[in-house]
Amino acid sequence: MAKKQFKAESKRLLDLMVNSIYTHKEIFLRELISNASDAEDKLAYKSLTDENVDIKRKDLKITIVPDKEMGTLTVSDNGVGMSKEDLENNLGTIARSGSGQFKAQLQEDDKAADKIDVIGQFGVGFYSAFMVADQVTVISKAWGSEEAWMWQSDGADGYTVTQCEKDAPGTDVIMHLKKDADGENYSQYLETYQLQELIKKYSDYIRYPIVMEVEDYRQKPKPEDAGEDYKPEWETVKEWKTINSMVPLWQRQKSKVKEEEYNAFYKEKFMDWQDPLAVIHTSAEGAVTYKALLYIPAQTPYDFYTREYQKGLQLYSSGVMIMDKCADLLPDCFRFIKGVVDSPDFSLNISREILQHDRQLKVIASALEKKIKSELLKMQKDDREKYEKFWKAFGTQVKYGIVAEYGAKKELLQDLLLFWSSKENANTTLAAYKDRMPEDQPFYYYACGESVDKIAKLPQVERILDKGYEILYCTEDVDDFVMKALGEWEGKKFKSVADEDALPQTEEEKKAAEEKAEAGKEVLEAVKEALGDQVKAVRISSILKSGACCLTAEGPVSLEMEKYMSKLEGGEHMKADRVLELNPDSAPYAALKRAKEAGDQDTLTKYAKLLYGQALLLAGLPVEDPSEFASLVSSLMV
């Protein structure tokens, strides 16, 4: 029979498909299995609508046969099959999809649509076979027909359709694989282990069994007459095996899935040795229909805070994996979540590797975001021990979520926050802190430092604690940014204990402070002169009670911000405007005053440097010249 030519535009499309459309050549197997599944679906639909079609779903299957001697790989189904006209229309014209037409039909039959999934929609997936094959043969027999037909093509040069013999209805796609060359390893697709891996990766949840003959190494049965010195013998046997799982866990009813099954799926799928802290199994119908199975891990992945870590959920469309890590389904604040999302509503591009537009993704992502928060709040309320584990692993990420994108996720995340409480000596939520507040407390107080113990000893916290007010101890670099991003909550502001107005002053207190500042003007000027550009200002403190000195900052950059930025590349130039605050009622201040009155500038300079070094250490900042500071301490002991 004479070879028929593809249409001119079909030739160009075929060349494009083989060389450009698909990112990975291995996708061809996913496409052919999906087409086979569609053929099974069409026959299943016939059995629902035509009483003459006596076929049971359990009899439908997809068969994979690699033949190393012939260099061929065959994908077969026992589905609806194709007539000569079907072969001409569906394979002779690229981008004409029988599945697409069938899908349109199904939309008019709601009852059948619930039971049938049709994956193909573009009519191009079949031609991905030419990425790995130099010749493709399709032998098909339509259900109810006595004739079988063979479609054969070497690629863009055209195709032939001839009559042939085939016993049972269905379709065989036989690919003669290309020879290995130019670094391309086509022969790998004849290895059963590689085929199993690809089936599990892309087609594990196709609803029909995908069967293949595989080799197994097992012990031979022990002979009945074997003596005591019998040594076990092993043999290699071939057996037909179903490769795919078929029904994914997320498609089953929650009430019928055991905790051990959820955990086993998580550990196998996401390569974790620990059980997850929580499982979120959810679904929705409406504008976008989807099912999701999400996990909250128990530990931080080793690369979680590196650039190499990739967030995202596995994306499936009707059981076929489209994307391994779809980042758009998770906000950064929940980037630790693992799981899968499956929806038949995604609009995919021609290769089914990329979403054409993200409207559906946005709807799903928004719903999942709320669901994740709800699950975390439930854990926080009902299982505090488990929530503490979560917070230890991922609390920092939640805090970063507060400050990212100019606080866009602040409302979502603030209820999840935990901080160490000076009163409870344990982590507390903002809501619990608010419930404990005295009526006269003007702010939510916080203090930043390296550790709880060091913060508790800061001179700035003394006056707040003496008032009976609770302080949130912030021990992470990001905490100061978090508090500033929060700004206020439930009608009250967050206030650092180092802020001058942390405790509102009466008019009498303000007047007394002004008098002390005026009285100490000469001493303050002398200390500033001694320290030079190391500080922007020296002032009488209104935040110290018994401590002699402390360091604060003026302007938008706090001391905590300076410490954080110093750890970042290029951030070491961001400096706070430092202010040395002195307690006029302390013994060291009295010593400064005596030195000033005696005109002993050398002693005053030593005292000033000593107090500044002390303030640096209390603030968790390095002393700029440790040797000089040590010598200074020693000189004052003589």
Architecture overview:
The chain is of the alpha+beta class. The protein folds into 4 domains: 8-217, Histidine kinase-like ATPase, C-terminal domain (Heat Shock Protein 90, 2-Layer Sandwich), CATH 3.30.565.10; 249-389, Ribosomal Protein S5, domain 2, CATH 3.30.230.80; 418-496, Rossmann fold; 508-635, Heat shock protein 90, C-terminal domain (Four Helix Bundle (Hemerythrin (Met), subunit A), Up-down Bundle), CATH 1.20.120. Helix content is 35%, strand content 21%. The chain is built from 20 helices and 22 strands. The chain has an 8-stranded mixed sheet with strand order 5-4-3-6-2-1-7-8, with helices on one face. Strand 1 and strand 2 (72-77) form a beta hairpin. Helix 8 packs across helix 9 (384-403) and helix 16 (521-531) packs across helix 19 (601-618). The longest helix has 24 residues, at 359-382. The termini are far apart.
Backbone shape: elongated
The portion of residues forming beta strands comes to 15-25%
Examine the secondary-structure arrangement and name the CATH architecture of the largest domain.
2-Layer Sandwich
Q: Count the E strands.
A: 22
What is the CATH topology of the largest domain? Heat Shock Protein 90
| Structural class computed from helices and strand pairing | alpha+beta
CATH superfamily of the largest domain: Histidine kinase-like ATPase, C-terminal domain
Q: Please describe the biggest sheet, giving its number of strands, its sense, and whether it closes into a barrel.
A: 8 strands, mixed
Approximately how much helix is present in the residues? 25-40%
Number of domains: 4
CATH top-level class of the largest domain: Alpha Beta
What is the average of the pLDDT values? 87
Poorly predicted spans: 95-100, 111-122
| Rg (CA only) | 36 Å
How are the strands of the biggest sheet laid out side by side?
5-4-3-6-2-1-7-8
Count, helices: 20
Determine the N-to-C terminus distance: 112 Å
